[in-house]
Amino acid sequence: GKSYLLNRIMNCDREYAFELGYTVDPTTKGIWMQVAYLSGGSAVAFLDTEGFAASDRTADYDAKIFSLAALLSSHLIYNSVRIIDASAVEYLELLARRARLFQMKTALSDSTQNRMNIQKPIAFPPLTWVVEDFFQDFPEGETPKMWLDRVLDAQPSDELTGEYTEGLSSLRDHLTSSLHVLRNPPAQETDASYLAQKTSGAKWTSGTHMAAILELLVDAANTNKMDSIPSLWTLFLERQVSQATEAAKVIFDKEVRTALDVSDYLLPLTESEFTEHARKSAQVAYKLFSDLLFGTASALTSNATEVLQAVFDKQTGYFAHENQMLVVEFCRKEGKRVVNEFKEKLKAYSLPQAEVKLKASMKADKDNALTSMQEKLKKYGAGSALESTKASLLNHFNELVTTNQGEIDKVLDAAKEAATVLYKKLTKDVIKDGPIAMETLEDVHKKAEQEATIKFGTRAELMKEEKTYKGHEAQCQVEIHRRFEKLKTQNKKAELPMEEQELVQSVMQRIDTALADFDQKTNEFKKFPERHEVRTELEGECNELKLQLQEENVAKWTRVVKKPLHRARQLLEEAKGNFYVGISLRRQAYRYADEEIGTALKDGLKHK
What is the mean pLDDT of residues 69-83? Predict the structure, then answer.
């Protein structure tokens, strides 16, 4: 074993040799140290460690022994039995990596390093792997190095050949670079001088230095700086718990998903329904979790249950959000359905109709639609969807009211047009044969106005209660009044020519009468700006008619005097050579002109 090998290497007396054991129980406990001297007088400290995998030792204890021995040594001899296989390489790799982590976690801080005069972290030593009782033969043509390369190549992961620490070669290079096969080695091949050739030099400057580092490493090992490695059973349980947790998550997701998939084409779940379903799904999943861990009661720890519950909570939150989206979509579709049905009902309304009646009918349909939707969605608390639908229904409600008002206005406009046309028809030929007396013209106007008003009322009978009825009625009166003013103007034109002053006085009197009549008939609308605009427009039209009459009066006067004046000029031209005759003819021309103009004026007065 290890102790025997070190005794052979030291080549020392039995008094100074490591104690050997011949029973199944190990003799070496912990780490023993012995000093031997080389032929040159140099002292070498040998460390004999306790064997690994003892029945009363843990893997953590073995890792501490290995780490201390490796970090204290300038050369490491690793002793195993019979053969190097995958498990042996993996175990050594694990020990080396744990030693490296231990090295990094020891008191190697700047303050400690300065106190111990350590310039850099403790180096990992060179390795000699001794295989005890290796009696197998190599395949023909295969050297020991080739065999070891093949063993290392067969490892499942290159993690097994990673570096131990900074500056350390890979495990492959470490094992194969100086491979040396000794079969029942003689003493001269196993003494300290042989190992001295493998040692890169002294690792410690003095015994005090080594003792300080030893104290540092032992303190670190005893203060739990060595990372724990779980046992195979613990790893198995952890894997079982992980697999059971994943299986429980899958069945939980499936159970909840089934309910959500059903609600996608039926009614979605309410918050309370979803919570209850999630709880039942968790019970099913937890039963599966327990069944999968049957026979491993130690795996059902509170921590495992909390982890599983955390998984359920996370998935519940995810599915709750998805269910909420289904609820939102359902409410949106329901609102859209209600709005579309309301729109179809609005299409069935015949327009125009009384606004009050229309609003009452639409309000009943709107309220019924909202009540139906509210009953269907109240368990979801979908207030926002209801408000959105209510706003949409109100928009369509107002749109139809506006459309109906437009149709009402069309009926009233048609009634106004029919009344105006009738008035024009009844008054068209009243002054065809010449001017008539004003009293006669006003009688014709009153009869025609009465007939037109009856016509408007008949055509707009169904719209009398509408708010725009009075306005259209007033517009009809304005149109009739304008037509009457034009009749009066045309009748006045037939009386021309007349004295300018008399004409202006007569026209202004009629303008005042017309405006007063307008004011009387539109008095109830005097607060409306439209009424003022129409009155201003009417007044402007009356003034234009006055100017037209004045121009027409001048033109008629011109036509009356033009012919007599021309004849008088001819007579004067003929008699201009004879003075007496000229005077006589001038008097005759004046007399002729007076007679002709007087006759024209008499003819005009007869038409009055």
Answer: 77
Cα distances from 504 to residues 12, 353, 509, 547, 553, in angstroms, run 159, 50, 9, 9, 11
Joined tokens for residue 248: 């429980």
CA distance 126 to 150: 22
pLDDT at residue 432 greater than cutoff 50: yes
Q: Calculate mean pLDDT across residues 518-533.
A: 76
Please name the residue that has the structure tokens 């006003």: 442
Distance CA 551, CA 350 (A): 55
Name the DSSP letter for residue 576.
T
Mean pLDDT of 402-418: 92
Q: Which of 15, 87, 99, 85 is nearest to 49 (CA)?
A: 99
CA 42 – CA 202 distance, rounded (Å): 10
Contact 514, 560 (CB under 8 A): no
Q: Does 155 score more than 70 pLDDT? A: no
Q: What is the DSSP string of 492-520?
A: HHHT-S--HHHHHHHHHHHHHHHHHHHHH
Spell out the long-range contacts of 155-164 with Cβ–Cβ below 8 A and sequence spacing 24 or more. Answer: 155/86, 155/89, 155/90, 156/86, 159/93, 160/89, 160/90, 160/93, 161/93, 162/93, 162/97, 164/96, 164/97, 164/99, 164/100, 164/124
Could you count the other beta carbons within 10 Å of the beta carbon of residue 359?
14
Please work out, in degrees rounded to the nearest 5, the angle formed at the alpha carbon of residue 544 by the alpha carbons of 430 and 414. 60
The answer to whether residues 21 and 2 touch, using CB atoms and an 8 Å cutoff, is no
- CB–CB of 412/460 below 8 Å? yes
Distance of alpha carbon 35 from the chain centroid:
77
- Return the percentage of the chain with pLDDT > 90, whole number: 16
The letter for the amino acid at 231 is S
Is residue 95 within 8 A of residue 62, CB to CB? The reply is yes
Measure CA of the first residue to CA of the last residue in the chain; give whole Å. Answer: 160
Residues 34, 8 contacting (CB under 8 angstroms): no
| CB-count exposure of residue 471 (10 Å: 0-12, 13-18, 19+) | middle
Distance from chain centroid for Cα 41? 83
Residues 6 or more apart whose Cβ sits within 8 Å of residue 341: 369
pTM above 0.70, yes or no: no
**Residues 244, 289: Cα–Cα separation, whole Å:** 5
The neighbour count for residue 262, using CB atoms within 10 Å, is 12
Banded model confidence at residue 298, pLDDT cuts 50, 70, 90: low
Looking at the DSSP bridge assignments, the partners of residue 128 are: 77
